[in-house]
Amino acid sequence: CDATLARAGIESRVLKGPAVARRFYDDPSLRSFGDGDILVRGSDIDATIESLAPAGFVRRFQAPSRSFDRRFVKAVSLVGEGRLELDVHRALTPGVFGVLFDVDEIFRTAPDSVEIGDRSLRCLTPELAFVHACAHAALGDPEPRFGSLRDVAEIARRPLDEERVRELLGRFRAEIVAQR
User: Fold this and answer.
1) 41 CB contacts (<8 Å, ≥6 apart)?
2) Is 33 helix (H, G, I), strand (E, B) or coil?
3) Which residues are within 8 A (CB) of 141 and not within 5 positions of it... i.e. 6 or more apart?
4) 158, 130 Cβ separation under 8 angstroms
5) pTM of the model
6) Residue 103 Cα distances to 19, 24, 155, 179, angstroms
7) DSSP alpha helix (H) spans, 72-117
8) CA dist., res. 162 & res. 94, Å (int)
């Protein structure tokens, strides 16, 4: 996917699952995941879906209108060969925090990278990964999932620039998310 998107001029970041497992868990096999997740700019979501279609990825559900994805969804679920699932995110969280977590700012931040297989993929910095893990744990489900909570704990065990974390939470007006 990464090379396909790069050829189309679409910048992306790998989120959650393998990116968190490979970077923050002592044993990546302890982090389960059922799909892949990438973040793209909202303005690139339609082009992302179109670019991945030749690789066999199709939408799980059709959008009610052409501009719906760019304007409203957190992510579009795609299914590829072998029932491989890929969630293409245009926001990190649902609801109001999906607007407050400024994706353009995230893309202005130099990415980190993670080795998955024989590929080096762009991902969130540790501080952004921590803020995202907090948001996913606090906002992803009515009752936080154990795996989401563990991601927060595993990332927090690693060296983080605490001032940068506070700055991001303040900028995204998401202190309450981390408190939860």
Assistant:
1) 11, 90, 103, 104, 107
2) coil
3) 148
4) no
5) 0.91
6) 18, 22, 21, 22
7) 95-100, 103-108
8) 25
Nearest to 153 by CA among 10, 6, 26, 7: 26
Residue 1 near residue 38 (C-beta atoms within 8 A): yes
Whether 42 and 106 have beta carbons less than 8 Å apart is answered as no
> Can you tell me whether residue 61 is helix, strand or coil?
coil
Tell me which residue has tokens 């995941």. 33
pLDDT tens digits, one per residue of 66-87: 788 888 889 999 998 888 899 9
| Strands 85-89, 36-39: pairing kind | parallel
CA distance 178 to 51: 35
Cα separation, 121 vs 15, in Å, equals 10
* SS3 state at 45: helix
Q: Which letter does DSSP use for residue 173 in this model?
A: T
